[in-house]
Amino acid sequence: HILLNLATGTGKTKIAYHITQKLWDHYLKPNGNHPKFLFITDRNQLVDQAMEGAFSPFVGKMTRLKGEKTTAYDIYFTLYQSLDSNKEDPEEPQEEYELYKQYDKNFFDYIIIDECHRGAQSDGGKWQEILKYFDGAVHIGMTATPKVDADSIETFEYFKHVAYVYSEKQGVKDGFLAPHYLKQESLSHDEDGWRREYEGQLGRNGQPLEDKLYGQDDYDSKITVIGRQRTVAKKIIEFLKTKPNTLYDKTIVFCRDQQHANEMTQIIQSESEVRDPNYCVQITSDQGTDGKRQLKKFCNVKEKFPVIAVTSKLMSTGVDARMCKLIVLDTNVNSKTELKQIIGRGTRVYEESTEMNKHYFTIMDFRKSTTRLEDLDWDSAPREKPAKPKSGKHK
Prior knowledge:
- The structure is a single chain.
- By secondary structure, the chain is an alpha/beta fold.
- Helices cover 30% and strands 16% of the residues.
- The protein has helices at residues 12-26, 44-52, 80-84, 116-119, 126-133, 150-159, 168-174, 188-192, 226-241, 258-271, 288-299, 336-343, 369-372; strands at 2-6, 37-41, 62-64, 75-79, 110-114, 138-143, 162-166, 180-184, 250-254, 280-282, 308-311, 324-329, 361-365.
- It has a seven-stranded parallel β-sheet with strand order 3-4-2-5-6-1-7. A six-stranded parallel β-sheet has the order 8-13-12-9-11-10, sandwiched between helices.
- Strand 10 (280-282), helix 11 and strand 11 form a beta-alpha-beta unit.
- Helix 9 (226-241) crosses helix 10.
- The longest helix is centred in the middle third of the chain and has 16 residues, at 226-241.
- The chain is globular and about 75 Å long.
- It starts with a strand and ends in a 23-residue tail after the last helix.
């Protein structure tokens, strides 16, 4: 069991490729065949990025497993949900058999588990069940999360030993990751609280509201306060209009849930002076094909639109948005693991173009999550002013 613990943006997928390439080239089986590899994760975006990006030299040698057994390839990519049963598309009929048990226990020689901290917790730790079935293979776990809270402890207990650690703080120091500027916002609704406006007023889920003082934990969960939502939207727009920022800096707004994301998308659209309907879009799991299309365009450095992506959980990990310059937290993040994943959306440096580049990003925090979940051992300190770090391209 081998665990690699590297901050988001420092190249875990490239490392996985080089490990695979070297073993595939140099460690043939006694029968002369190449070893078999299984790359598992829990999101389609992560599979697509790996196959279309770092692993593209293996075209013809690799395949995507999706509900049906095949043995004709050397490298297999899949979701652990698909190995369990056909759960990738909830609209499709669900298969009742477990796909991974259709394979011989010794079929795979190496198994790479991407973002393994999350897979351990989902579906009762399903990837552990899969790994124990293929217990003869080498298990290589990859995570951007250190052992800091209950969200990741199960992963570290399984792998026991961390073979390599590279923190976000070290990545910034070495010039591989972008430093950040922190802008913590204090709103009057959060400081003073909010009371119902009339007797019989209903809450977010149709429940009668008690006559009491509501606070930050209640907003966009138990109650909807349009005035607060509008204030958040205005502050985002005002920030993007303030130099050196521009209204076209790529931005991700993290909301509490999909309903909140939908509401914030509409309000930001109405507050913005940019009239293009694709300027601000909702990208959440319920957006289906259109959401996937908008996500792909958002991550493409050559695409101007969408500029602002409003999401809840979908974009917290596995999204390679290299030009993202603003991360907005308008959700109560209660996990260091989740916060590190979210902040990782902004840490990539982009300096491959003379026309546009990115050397830092900003976190705009409306919920005090960055203060409550501070991790001095792993996280880099925010810069006083946005600054260009020394380049790491020569390393």
